[in-house]
Amino acid sequence: MLHFTGTDDIVGPEGMEKFCEDIGVEPENVVMLVLAWKLDAQNMGYFTLQEWLKGMTSLQCDATEKLRNTLDYLRSLLNEPANFKLIYRYAFDFAREKDQRSLDMNTAKCMLGLLLGKTWPLFPVFHQFLEQSKYKVINKDQWCNVLEFSRTINLDLSNYDEDGAWPVLLDEFVEWYKEKQMA
């Protein structure tokens, strides 16, 4: 790790790029989010020496090659629903500005794309809805409910209960989507 750090025992954006290059992964690959989760990293784009040492010890990786060989294992964690939910919830706090309680919409769209883009068939339409919506941020309740919605609501929205406890954001999405289907 030391050859990725600056002077403060922190791997920052430049070191992160070099690190990703060394392990053969794009920085925006979802496996990097899983690695950050495993390291319990607090700030996106940065790993502290402490986070690094603790995480690499738990992964039993003391060399770049071992970490490279661990990537498939890290990816496989996304296939376990309980782990995915933990990673998904972690992503919200990891990606938000620490002085904010919500996630700005651009970051939220990127993180949702990273986490749900390949697995939720309605994601492209939901992304389109967010693009044109009045929302500037997503709060943690909305964030968590998007995952629940993606896992429980049918693609044709036939089991969506308008009187359910969904956030207004999702009520508006359903209404928008149904209008779009009729057009």
From TrEMBL:
Example GO molecular function term?
Answer: ubiquitin conjugating enzyme binding
Annotated organism of origin: Eleutherodactylus coqui (Puerto Rican coqui)
Q: Which residue intervals define the domain DCUN1 in the entry?
A: 1-178
Tell me, what's a Pfam family for it? Answer: Cullin_binding
**Name listed for the protein in its UniProt record:** DCN1-like protein
A GO cellular component entry from the record: ubiquitin ligase complex
One of the GO biological process terms: protein neddylation
